[in-house]
Design goal:
By secondary structure, the chain is α+β, with helices and mostly antiparallel strands. Helices cover about 25% and strands about 35% of the residues. The longest helix has 17 residues. The N terminus is likely disordered.
Length: about 230
């Protein structure tokens, strides 16, 4: 019986890591930067969202706390669960359709972008925070909310060890990192006769037979079983 529980725990851990959704706990903090109050949503030391505009009678620190609470209330959160869209006419970040944070025009202006651009930036920052080894750009000192140029592109899925093309994947992340992605390596393995694991890893080379170089700060957000 003990062996069964140990094996089950190993399978769950490997499946979670392969899906890029290791448990992440979000928290919040309030601090002052160059005399300006800011609220920060943190995840394992990174700051995917910085709130600089109070609203609805709440301080920036209280708003950050609510955002962190909303994220923590959704179990098994994955990068692909985080999206951006309009909620009651305003751009916002959502998780599985639930409102996480609203990107107000005032906050966007401080970041030097549009409300849509800020929502997309927060979306990609949160996705990066949920990826093991993902890179989240720190907020600029004395500046507005963190904003990074992001990108997405479709690349082939290559079977490790054979180099065969077995589908296509949509990868996302910061523009400079996505530009390095040449393919997604499909790694498969088994745990005895109990489970079969498939991991998808963005890599900077199409040579997945001899040389696999993972591209940090990127994530697979969609796959398609088509041949390129």
């Amino acid at each position: 019986m003990r062996r069964y529980y140990v094996l089950t725990a190993l399978v769950v851990a490997v499946l979670t890591a392969a899906a890029g959704c290791l448990a992440v706990t979000f928290s919040s903090r309030a601090r002052t930067v160059n005399g300006v109050a800011v609220g920060e949503v943190t995840a394992d030391g990174s700051v995917p969202i910085q709130v600089r505009v109070p609203g609805a009678g709440l301080s920036v620190g209280e708003r950050a706390a609510i955002i962190a609470q909303r994220l923590n209330s959704i179990p098994n959160l994955k990068p692909a669960d985080i999206t951006a869209g309009r909620v009651r006419g305003e751009w916002a970040v959502l998780a599985r359709g639930h409102l996480i944070a609203t990107a107000e025009s005032a906050a966007a202006a401080q970041a030097g972008t549009s409300a849509r651009g800020l929502a997309l930036s927060w979306r990609n920052q949160l996705r990066a925070a949920l990826v093991p080894g993902g890179t989240v750009s720190p907020p600029p000192v004395g500046g507005g909310p963190a904003f990074v140029q992001t990108a997405q592109k479709v690349v082939p899925i290559l079977s490790v060890g054979t180099g065969l093309r077995v589908g296509a994947a949509l990868v996302a992340g910061s523009s400079d990192q996505v530009a390095k992605v040449k393919a997604v390596a499909q790694v498969e393995g088994e745990f005895g006769r109990t489970a079969r694991i498939r991991a998808l890893v963005p890599v900077s080379t199409e040579d997945v037979i001899r040389n696999i170089r993972r591209v940090p700060g990127t994530a697979v957000i969609a796959v398609g079983d088509i041949r390129l």
